[in-house]
């Protein structure tokens, strides 16, 4: 099993990462990436610990592998997957949105349906199976970039000015393809092993040059990653910014400057229909988004605990109005958790014997996410009030003997001394008001697409036929004569 040390060593591959106009030469040591790299390393060490029960014998390799990469072939497999994903999510309290198990779920579903990659002009199914075996063997951390650059939402890539703005085929060769252009938004890409590059946005037949799916090492020649501003380097300490200094998984724009992709790394080639098959005919979309809901439910549970703790420290947790707010946040967290468990309870095997969580429950929960998360944050902001502003500028006021006495005297609660109260409210600020917190607010609202897109998944997968039939049967039971 891969360990955290193994993972960190693999980051030394001369990858081309840019922050503030400068190339990062040592990703694992750079202040923007070292904290999240350490966190991912901790996840690998957790998986390698027999006490976590995160391993199984993979039938494809007959060797020990991480459960998060396995193809679920029975209800027990699905339950074991959920528990493994929860183990990782609880280690990060749900704040790492693209841990290795996310794309790992997509790849597992791909491997459970190799026929989806054989229906185009080229049979690429063997590539999918071989790469999945590699993830089982090496526990690779795969990020993905499956959204075109936001050049125009009114047209697709073939109509854009310029040559291959969205990543597309620049050259087809006997041994592979050369790709050029850009794709977004590789969350965690700078510290991943590989990136799955594809397009989930619907394309037209005029966009065949952009209808691709392939995996590429982050250190591939010609691949550049342009990162949004990282938050970890600006954080003064782990005491002041306990989330920013651990979980800032930098998002990145990928730019391909004539990058060679060997055929064995290509899953979909100039096949518009193949893009949809890989996500929806394989069940990858529902399995991957179930993982996302597992993580999201853990995160809401953490925020509910934070809200309850704040109310207790402020001594207001018995006030009826506060109990109402805590009850609401508990209800919202329970809705997300119930969606995860309902999806598992309603799971069924598909035609290939791959067990998939119930789509109604997964997409129903997803459809509410863009509303649940902002509401949870709003309640938490209500409860902390000005308390997140009445904190020392940094931990140095706690360390300086000349200022510590004032902090101890004036910034405390009956149930919590100053050091504990300040720590709690610093955490609340990092969750709700810091740049890190603001990014997560935006992320949770749009991680699966615009809200109308996500609610469209819920609409199509709810199964309106039965309730409509119930209504029609009821209507048929009476008429104007009574």
Q: What does this protein structure show overall?
A:
The radius of gyration is 24 Å and the shape is globular. It has helices at residues 4-10, 34-48, 75-92, 100-112, 125-138, 244-247, 272-281, 284-313, 320-345, 359-384, 396-399, 401-410, 418-432, 435-446, 451-462, 465-475; strands at 16-19, 22-24, 55-58, 63-66, 142-145, 168-173, 176-183, 194-197, 212-217, 223-227, 252-262, 266-269, 348-349, 355-356. The strands form 4 sheets. Strands 2-1-10-11-7-6 form a 6-stranded mixed β-sheet, with no helix packed on it. It has a 4-stranded mixed β-sheet with strand order 5-8-9-12. A two-stranded antiparallel ribbon has the order 3-4. Strand 1 (16-19) and strand 2 (22-24) form a beta hairpin. The chain is 47% helix and 14% strand. The chain is an alpha+beta fold.
Based on DSSP secondary structure assignment, what is the total number of beta strands?
14
Unreliable stretches, pLDDT < 50, 5 or more residues? Answer: none
How is the largest sheet built, in terms of strand order? 2-1-10-11-7-6
Give the N-terminus to C-terminus distance in angstroms. 71 Å
Helical amount? 40-55%
Main beta sheet: 6 strands, mixed
Order of helices and strands: HEEHEEHHHEEEEEEHEEHHHEEHHHHHHH
The pLDDT mean sits at: 95
Structural class: alpha+beta
Number of helices: 16
Outline = globular
Strand content: 5-15%
Radius of gyration computed on alpha carbons: 24 Å
